[in-house]
């Protein structure tokens, strides 16, 4: 079979005449569009840095914006050239639905991570209590939060669970209250006990002067009464402060000759 070069050249010539200008416009649009996107992303980066925007969220937003604009630019260029995207669009939509179903939990954690970084219910360095765990937040990632417990265990918690459940921020307010309940028989004068405990609190370097300490009887029973002590200390180091205070109260009560039940 003899190849008809004349017909081939005629078709190629007609294709260049009809498609060439659109192809040139599409390439020019791509080059100019990519440059404008780069300029816009640079301007956006400087604006976020001036506002001290969260570094992790800043990096994500910049990349998401750049990729989204580039996709829109490529779609515009293909439309100008005349490429039909109906079949390709259907394939992409099918993959998107499948991926969405497969990654629904991951996407939930991802969105929750963004909300946590924006709303800041807790920050790195805060002490929190959640999911039956208590410790210090060491990292907030897009998909999970890392907590270091007081006994040196690293716990990774998906952000979706944190955004949908109660999270107690133990250190956000700066101070925490130490609550201690002591039981005494009615033969022991509560005023004497108060004097000893007040002196103990005054001598304790970890107890804050404000808010004021509160000492009082909170429960009366048939053979004993309960004296409650409420004292404030720094949220960081709360456990150590509570242990030290309890040991000092017990020591001072013994030295004063005041006995607790069972002593």
Describe, in plain words, how this protein is organized in 3D.
With 263 residues, this protein is α+β, with helices and mostly antiparallel strands. The protein folds into 3 domains: 5-83; 121-169, SH3 type barrels; 175-255, Alpha-Beta Plaits (2-Layer Sandwich), CATH 3.30.70. The chain is 54% helix and 21% strand. The protein has helices at 5-50, 55-81, 86-102, 104-119, 159-163, 190-203, 238-255; strands at 127-130, 133-140, 144-149, 154-158, 168-169, 175-185, 214-220, 224-234. The chain has a 5-stranded antiparallel β-sheet with strand order 4-3-2-1-5. β3 (144-149) and β4 (154-158) form a beta hairpin. α1 runs antiparallel to α2 (55-81) and α6 packs across α7 (238-255). The radius of gyration is 34 Å and the shape is rod-shaped. The termini are far apart. The mean pLDDT is 81.
């Amino acid at each position: 079979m003899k190849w008809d070069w004349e017909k081939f050249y005629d078709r190629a010539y007609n294709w260049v005449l009809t498609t060439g200008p659109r192809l040139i416009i599409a390439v020019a649009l791509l080059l100019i569009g990519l440059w404008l996107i780069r300029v816009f992303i640079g301007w956006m980066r400087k604006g976020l840095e001036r506002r001290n925007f969260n570094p992790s969220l800043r990096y994500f937003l910049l990349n998401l914006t750049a990729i989204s604009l580039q996709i829109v630019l490529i779609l515009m260029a293909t439309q100008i050239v005349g490429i039909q995207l109906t079949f390709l669009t259907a394939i992409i939509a099918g993959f998107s639905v499948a991926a969405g179903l497969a990654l629904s939990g991951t996407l939930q954690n991802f969105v929750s991570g963004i909300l946590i970084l924006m709303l800041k219910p807790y920050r790195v360095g805060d002490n929190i209590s959640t999911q039956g765990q208590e410790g210090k937040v060491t990292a907030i990632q897009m998909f999970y939060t890392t907590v270091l417990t007081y006994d040196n265990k690293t716990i990774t918690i998906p952000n979706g669970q944190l955004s949908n459940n109660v999270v107690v921020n133990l250190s956000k307010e700066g101070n925490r209250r130490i609550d201690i309940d002591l039981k005494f028989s009615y033969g022991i004068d509560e005023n004497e006990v108060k004097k000893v405990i007040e002196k103990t609190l005054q001598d304790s370097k970890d107890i804050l002067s404000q808010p004021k300490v509160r000492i009082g009887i909170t429960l009366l029973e048939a053979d004993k009464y309960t004296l409650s002590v409420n004292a404030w200390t720094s949220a960081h180091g709360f456990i150590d402060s509570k242990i030290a205070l309890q040991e000092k109260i017990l020591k001072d009560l013994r030295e004063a000759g005041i006995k607790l039940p069972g002593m």
